[in-house]
Design brief:
8-stranded antiparallel beta sheet, 10 strands, alpha+beta, elongated
Length: about 350
């Protein structure tokens, strides 16, 4: 009630700027609220500038003014409009703060907007794919090539998903290992984990005359895919398809498992009953001439030449059924033969 006329006008002009309905052209709710608020502001302004209110703010009830200087008495009264900020001036900080609070109350969270844009982009790509698929599949000239391209895209997508799945499982497994205290070694079921390959890795066996995962057949017989040492996860997925489960650097196909190290096949354990996976190892070097059996000190190539591809393969162990051949520095260091399983061609 003791505010000066200039202060009343300044406050009135600022509030009119804040709550003018033209500021909310795109928001009907805010525009309606601004109209109601502006009515209250106008009523308050009319009351404060009314004669009765002006009388309440008379010098008798307000602070006494200092005596005017003689030269000031003859000056024209100051124009109150001159102290009112121009409409084109930048918004005061209070105006921006008020508007910001009102917009926050009615605006959607940013992550919802981003999610909406992402869903829209995915829907657009899916619609475009369906249109292209319909056009190319209905044309006999392009149907075959298009079907082959779709199969390649599907395999690539499945391999990427399997790789992400394996990485996520590996991170979860490592996190559990860090948060738990080991209480002793327990054998793990094949569906969740398996023994890690031993150290002292040797050079991966390679076939002569073809890539590592292709068995070179006779003329005109084509090629048969095998899983062998050194393949990448993508190549394994292209041969075997999606695994039933995975853990760390392992892929499980029922009771069979494929072990990886540094992104390459480093071993396996094959169960011929539940998952007879096609695996193959070729001699890395030429076998010993006239070889009829192996013994202590024989090379891995000699064992492969005599026994064939093992169903259990790691750096220091070959398994044939329940019989096992042990290696040290890539040379036979011992064996454990099960007479009821695969017989080992060793010197007895």
């Amino acid at each position: 009630m003791h505010a000066s006329a200039a202060r009343i006008e300044n406050s009135y002009q600022m509030l009119v700027k804040v709550w003018h309905p033209d500021r909310f052209q795109t928001d009907p709710k805010m525009r309606l609220a601004a109209e109601e608020k502006l009515k209250e502001i106008n009523v308050a302004h009319e009351f404060l500038i009314s004669p009765a209110s002006a009388q309440d703010r008379s010098p008798a009830t307000s602070r006494p003014k200092p005596p005017e200087a003689p030269e000031e008495r003859f000056k024209a009264p100051a124009d109150t409009a001159s102290v009112v900020p121009d409409v084109e001036e930048p918004e005061p900080d209070e105006v921006r703060r008020i508007l910001k609070r009102q917009r926050k109350k009615r605006s959607l969270p940013r992550f919802l907007l981003n999610a909406g844009f992402a869903v829209g982009a995915i829907a657009t790509v899916a619609l475009l794919w369906l249109v292209i698929d319909s056009i190319l599949s209905s044309n006999p000239r392009t149907a075959g090539a298009w079907d082959q391209h779709k199969a390649e895209v599907s395999r690539a997508f499945q391999s990427n998903m399997a790789r992400l799945w394996a990485n996520a499982a590996d991170n979860l497994h490592n996190q559990k290992d860090q948060n738990s205290t080991p209480v002793g070694e327990l054998p793990a079921p094949p569906s969740t984990s398996a023994p890690a390959p031993e150290s002292s890795a040797s050079a991966a066996p390679r076939p002569v005359g073809g890539p590592p995962h292709i068995k070179v057949s006779g003329p005109g017989q084509g090629a048969l895919p095998y899983v062998t040492s050194g393949l990448t996860p993508t190549e394994v997925l292209a041969i075997l398809g999606n695994p039933t489960s995975s853990s760390g650097e392992k892929m499980f196909y029922e009771a069979s498992e494929i072990d990886f190290r540094n992104g390459r096949v480093a071993g396996w354990r094959i169960d011929p009953k539940t998952a007879p996976i096609r695996v193959k190892l070729w001699p890395d070097t030429a076998p010993t001439p006239g070889l009829s059996y192996f013994t202590i000190g024989s090379s891995k190539s000699d064992v492969i030449e005599l026994q064939g591809t093992p169903t259990l393969f790691s750096d220091n162990k070959f398994g044939y059924g329940n019989s096992v051949v042990l290696f040290q520095n890539d040379r036979v260091s011992g064996w454990n033969e099960d007479p009821g399983s695969v017989r080992l061609r060793v010197a007895h």
